[in-house]
Sequence to fold (242 residues):
Amino acid sequence: MGERKGVNKYYPPDWTPDQGGINKYHGTHALRERARKLHMGILIIRFEMPYNIWCEGCKNHIGMGVRYNAEKKKIGMYYSTPVYQFRMKCHLCDNYFEIKTDPANLDYVIISGARRQERRWDPTTNEQVVPEDKAVSRKLASDAMFKLEHGAADTAKAKDSRPTIARLQAHQEVWKDDYAANRHLRDLMRDRKKTEKKLIAEDKELLNRGCLSINLLPKSDEDNRTAALLRLIPLQSKHILC
Fold:
């Protein structure tokens, strides 16, 4: 709905084209209230929290994806990429926190007012494929020995991963027929439901015969062995003669 505010198709009778656009005629900006601090280099935007944080004012948790009306301004450059800073007010207290972009690491950095909830990890520890950073790329382009060592390491890693890749390809051949695999799973589910339904009916019948209202546990081989060892011992009554 925000983009509709800048569209004004009504032109007053005293307006002429030499007076400029309709916003200039009314003395307003196309972005309306979002541009109230534009003379200070600040634009009001809708900012979405990039990760989980803790507010240092109220000590409450703010989840990733929560949106705020933030003041956006340019504070510098990283090569040809501008660095922006965002200032917003916590919706749970009167604390303000500031966050800026970090183009070098493709991330956001908290400047003040909050602290990040650490849930980061090194993707190389679980063998994820990560792109090379700029330092390694530059070294690969300039250092021939480093490029040779890097290529040897990649070759060794590919050799170690060859059995895993072959196993995955073999599984892929089995899973190639999606319909057959899905049908097999549905058949297993139907058989399991039938078995469970039969067991429930048998337990219900047993409880009704014994007038019991308890929960029966599933049968086990240990219970069968214990029941086979049980013997009914008749009670011996002693007659006491007076």
User: Anything to note?
Assistant: The mean pLDDT is 83. The chain has five helices and eight strands.
